[in-house]
Give the backbone structure.
Amino acid sequence: MEFSSKLLEQAVNRMAQFPGIGKRTALRLVLHLLKQPVSHTQKLANSLLQMREQINFCKNCHNISDTEVCEICANPSRNNTIICVVEDIRDVMAIEATGQFSGHYHVLGGKISPMDGIGPGELTIKPLLEKVKSGVVTELIFALSSTMEGDTTNFYIFKQIENLPIITSTIARGIAVGDELEYADEITLGRSIVNRVPFESSLKSQ
């Protein structure tokens, strides 16, 4: 792709680094920005800088937040005895969109994947275990994507807490094996949360 401007080429190359955006899409987005008032681009740039510099991670669940404790954890109407374990914020948003879950979350920040050099120490598993051992939590719902990495992570956490007096469950397999949680439709995902099954049962079916 030939460019008549080095500045244009630089902007397109930067934009093309975003996931799922190729050079042609990046060019279309950059040209769109060029047609907008300068103030529009300035507001966009300021929003991105402000987000990057000021965003926090909830000290309780590790969800992305504007404050020290996210709105979900701070909401007194939420049930803090039930924790839904997810990979990242996209999964929190997907489950929240169903309106079928009123507990708290715990964001791991990824899944165990030896091939990618990601072990338990790279995830927020230790704070989760400490939370469970505190005695407040009565149920842990595993809501990781049904991939090999997701199942490995579920099993690792389960083995750490299997002797504790706590219910462990997993979302029902309305989500196809191998599918990422964030791409499931709201109705299917909502039913999977409501119709969750004991985690031990999911082990027998594998």
Remarks:
- The CA atoms of residues 57 and 78 lie 19 Å apart.
- The chain has two domains: 6-54, 74-204.
- DSSP finds nine helices and seven strands in the chain.
